[in-house]
Amino acid sequence: MSDLLASAGVVIAAGASAASILLGPGRLRSGAMLLAIVLCPILILGDQWHTHQIVDLRHSTGRIVGLLVIGAGVTAVLGFVFRRWPILIPLTIIAALPFRIPLHSGGDTANLLVPLYLVIAAGVVAVAARDWRFRPAGPVAAGTEEPRPAGPVAAGDPPPPPVAKASSGVGPPTAPPAGGAAAVWLPRVLAAVVVLYGVQTLYSGDFSKGLQNVCFFLVPFTVAYGLLREVGWDKRLLKWALVVVAAEAVAFVLIGSVEYVTRSLFWNDQVIRSNEFHTYFRVNSVFWDPNVYGRYLALVIVMAMAALLWVRERRAFAVLTLLVAVLWIGLAQTFSQSSFIALLAGLAVLAALRWSWRWTLAAVSIGAVGAIFVVLLVGGSGKVRLNVDTSGRANLVSGGLDLFSERPIQGYGSGSFQHAYRDHAANKDVPVSVSHTEPVTVAAEQGLPGLVLYAALIVLALGVMASGLFASRAGGIGEGGVEDDPARSAPPSPMTGPARQAVLAAFVALLVHTLAYAGFFEDPIAWVLLAIGASLAATAAPVVRQPA
What we know:
Blueprint: H1 2-22, H2 27-47, H3 52-58, H4 61-84, H5 88-96, E1 101-105, E2 108-112, H6 114-131, E3 173-174, H7 181-200, H8 207-229, H9 235-262, H10 269-276, H11 290-310, H12 314-332, H13 337-354, H14 357-377, H15 386-389, H16 393-406, H17 417-424, H18 438-466, H19 469-472, H20 498-517, H21 524-539, E4 544-545
Antiparallel strand pairs: 1-2, 3-4
Helix pairs in contact: 1-2, 1-7, 1-8, 2-6, 2-8, 4-6, 5-6, 5-9, 6-8, 7-8, 7-18, 8-21, 9-11, 9-12, 11-12, 11-13, 11-20, 13-14, 13-20, 16-17, 16-18, 18-20, 18-21, 20-21
């Protein structure tokens, strides 16, 4: 009976979270969000009920009551604050992205995004309180009575239509969503990804792992996407978002620099032992993994560079330049090769958008050829030691492809890569969690259906984020409708220029990093970039004149 209830709960939670991004603002949508958020902790507790950590917790009534009171209290306070100041919903979600709290579950240490979960739950409470008190579903903030003429609106409310003036023609100007069909299908495919993952846990070789992935990652991140997708991102909110991530990244670099100077880490025994056998010393700051720390710094550097390419004020230019330099120091201390490559990919996208995609493509091609020659000729042997140079990841990739070839249609089930790989590996004690290459993990676990949806999601996301950017790069429109000189054109608006470029470049950098480290659906930054990119594309739609 418990297995049946757990299976049904996973599917219902996945379906409810998917409904939260498909339904329009209203009571039904907020009810779906609440259902998804409430089911997740219940399913996790049921799955881990007989582990010794939960057993110890069950025997300590005071601890259970204390944790429940603290969680409910923080959620209630944040929900009240978000109703009064809706602008804090997106900013708080962005601020909570990097922070994980180590908790013990099932004999292992799980580093959970507890602050982010509380923020998401509070955002859902704020939106539900508005919807279930019969407040208008238009551009009304979560805690205000009257609509605001401009600026960001509450999560869950559609952004106000862009105001633009037609130079001629009859009829009011309209602003269709940028990206066309891609913008319409993006949330649908994203919802299908979540539902399919939930359904494929039912036959997974590691049901517990699949359930945890659904409850810890896919469901709360989907709800966060729903909260952020309808936020009206104006210039002020975008600047504050950049300030938040920049300030946190600098703080992380300072902590990492202290670790580097003192040659001591705060946590992760595996990295501590690894540093004892290497000539270099890797730091992880407040992050568990140096590669995740490096990924975060690389993404912030890309965003700062996007602003730096368009900034005109000398003071802002100096601040951004200093920021990039500080973050680069922190990134160098991680010795994360995948993060370096991700940074280069993001910078290449910015170069293509700011100047010329042809010259950028030529430079990237030359650099790739040079890198291949360096790898081929390293050590003077002329041979490539792939499995050594990739820290064993080549075996994981080849093993994942073998798993896919054995079950190309249905796969081995969500979250089953570790279990299936060990069953098929000659060495049963090999440490493995994922293939370290996101498409390979998806193919092995979910088969062709998951792989097709994953590819469709990436294509649609890139199409929506890049829509109109390359066309608008050539020049601007000056006063009176006269086209500016492209070489001296003014920077575009925050909606069509630096902000969208930053999101697109950061998303590409994240994709490249997941090809070497995986963790696409498990990284909340990916979902936040998807939501912001879709929202900015919708508000940056061109004006179309309709005939009478």
